[in-house]
Amino acid sequence: MVVENEGYNERQLREYAHIDEWLKEFWLDEHGASGSWQAIQRGLWPDHSEITCLAMWLYWFLLKPEQYKREDPYTRRALSILKVYALGTHWYPLVTPSWTEFRPSSTARGAPLTVYDSKFGLRAPALSVPAILSFISLQSHLHERTDHSMPLVPSQASPPQALLLNTIGNEWECEWGRSTNLGTQKLPADKELLDAFRPGSLDGVWEGIFTYTEFTSYAALLSGAPPHFLQNTLVAQHKQTWKLREHHLLSSSSSDPCPLRSGNETDNIQPVASGNALHAYFPLETQIEETTEGLTITASGSGRQPLLYQRAGSQAKTKSSNEVKAAKDTETRVLDIIITGEGHSSWGEFRLIGRVRPCDGLISLSKDYINGDRGKWLYRGYLVGNHNSNLAGRMLYHDTTPLMPIDIVLLTYMQIMYTIYPSVFKSL
After folding, report:
1. Which of 131, 173, 193 is nearest to 338 (CA)?
2. CA gyration radius for the chain?
3. Are 65 and 72 contacting, i.e. CB atoms less than 8 angstroms apart?
4. Helix axes 173-183, 189-196, angle to 10 degrees
5. For a tag site, which of 7, 20, 153, 352 has the least CB within 10 Å?
6. What single DSSP character describes residue 346?
7. Peptide bond connecting 154 to the previous residue in cis, omega within 30 degrees of 0
C-alpha cells in the first residue's frame, strides 16, 4: 500500500490502521516487537531480518520528525536505535546481495506475491539506507540545523501532480522494482535496471553532508565494543557538493545510438565488462574519454571495439509514459549507466566515476581527491524516491596497498539542487 501510494493509501494507513502508533511501538517501546531497545540494553546488536528491514523502510516512508520532542523518552530511544543501525557498518550491510558483485550470481527468493496475472517474489532491501535517512533527519530536526541541506522527509514533501504521476510514476516505484528484483529471478538485466533505477535521475548538482565518527571509536567497534558504545561517540558532519553526469549505453535503434559501431554489430552491443568492486566495477586499464556527447570506453586487450555511452539528454527527466514504455522495448533500451562528475567538501576537491548495478539500482562511485594524499574512497548507495529524491549510502576507504578495505563509519546523504543537461541549466 505504501509504495503504490498516490495519497489515499497513506491516509488510510494513518487514520484507519494507526500505523504511526504501530511503528512507534514496534521500534521504540521498551517491549517493542523489534527487540531493538532490549538488545541494546543487554549490550547486543539488534536484529537484522526481513521483518526489521520492512519496518525500517516503513519508518522512513512515514516519518514525521515534528512528532518527536527533545525530552520525550521515545525520542531518545529513536536516536539511539537509528544511530546503531546507521553507524554499525560492520554489523548491518548496506545492500543485499553483496555490493562486491556487479551481477550477483543468484538472489534469495522473496515472499511469493501475485499481482494480476504476474507472479513475483518480494524481498525488502537492507535497512541501512532508511536508517541513515531517518537518523540524519531526526537529528537535524532536534538540533534545528539550517547550515546545510537536509533530507527531504517524505511526509513533508508536496504530493506529485497527476501529470508527473503519469509521466514518471509514483514516488516509490523504483523501491517497488528493487524489492521485486531482489526476490524474483528476472531476465534480461536491462529490464531489471529500468525497474530499479530511472535513467537520467542522477544528472545534476547535489548538495548534502557526510557524517562520520572518530576513527578510534570505529576501531573499538571492530574490536568488539557493544552497541551502546556508539551512544557516547562524537559524530562530525561536513557539507559536500557533487556535480554528476549520466551516460547511457543504448541498444540498437533506427537512429544508431552507438555510432562507433556499424552494421549488424549494433544488434549485439554488450556493456563494459564488470570489474573489481573497489574500482566501481570497472575492469583494470579501461580507457575512458569524456566529451560533451558522452563517454568513449575502450576495454583493455587487443582488438577491442570502443563503446559510446551517450550523455543523458534533457528529455530524461520528463519522459512520457509512452516513452518510458518504449525504453523497455527491444527497439531502444538502456543497457548500462555510467556516472562521471566532480565535487568538493572541506576535505578538498575530487573526481567521481562509477556505475549503476542493474539488479537493484545500487550506485557505486569511485572518489579520487585532486590534491593531497587522502587515499581512495568508494561511495555506495541508493537513490530513494522518484519525485523528491534523496541519495544516501556509505563511504568505504581503501588504498592501493592494503588487502582489506575499511568500511569506515562515514555516512553520505545528498539532495539534488539543480538539474544539468548538455545545454540546459535549470533550478528545480
Report:
1. 193
2. 21
3. no
4. 140
5. 7
6. T
7. no
Work out the angle between the directed axes of helices 50-62 and 128-143 (0-180°, nearest 10): 40
Nearest CA to 408 among 418, 420, 395?
395
Q: 130: which DSSP letter?
A: H
- 211 and 345 Cβ atoms separated by less than 8 Å: no
β 376-384/390-398 pair status: antiparallel
pLDDT score, position 57? 95
Q: Is 178 helix (H, G, I), strand (E, B) or coil?
A: helix
Tens digit of each residue's pLDDT (9 = 90 or more) over 369-427: 888 677 788 999 999 998 888 999 998 877 654 444 555 555 666 776 644 433 222 22
Peptide bond preceding 151 in cis form (omega within 30 of 0)? no
Phi, psi of 284 (to 5 degrees): -60, 145
Find the length of the chain: 428
**How far apart, in whole angstroms, are the C-alpha atoms of residue 312 and residue 314?**
7
Q: Give me the residue label for grid cell 539532495.
A: 415
Could you tell me where the beta strands, DSSP code E, fall in 109-154? Answer: 111-115, 118-122
- Give 266-290 as a 3 state SS string: HHHCCCCCCCCHHHCCCCCCCEEEE
Beta bridge partners of 289: 296
Segments making up each domain of the chain, as ranges? 8-199, 240-427
Q: Smallest Cα–Cα separation from 311: which of 331, 289, 330?
A: 289
Cα distance between residue 167 and residue 58, in whole Å: 25
DSSP helix/strand/coil, 260: coil
Per-residue b or e along 208-230, where b marks 16 or more CB atoms closer than 10 Å to that residue's CB: bbbbbbeeebbeebeeeeebeeb
Q: Are 237 and 87 in contact (CB under 8 A)?
A: no
Phi, psi angles (nearest 5°) of residue 164: -70, -35
**What global pTM score does this model have?**
0.85
pLDDT of residue 309: 94
| Integer CA distances (angstroms), 56 to 32, 148, 380, in order | 14, 25, 19
Neighbours of 52 (CB within 10 A): 24
192/107 Cα distance (integer angstroms):
13
Q: Mean pLDDT over residues 332-346, rounded? A: 90
Specify whether the CB–CB gap between 135 and 86 falls below 8 A. Answer: yes
The residues facing 365 across adjacent strands are: 354, 379
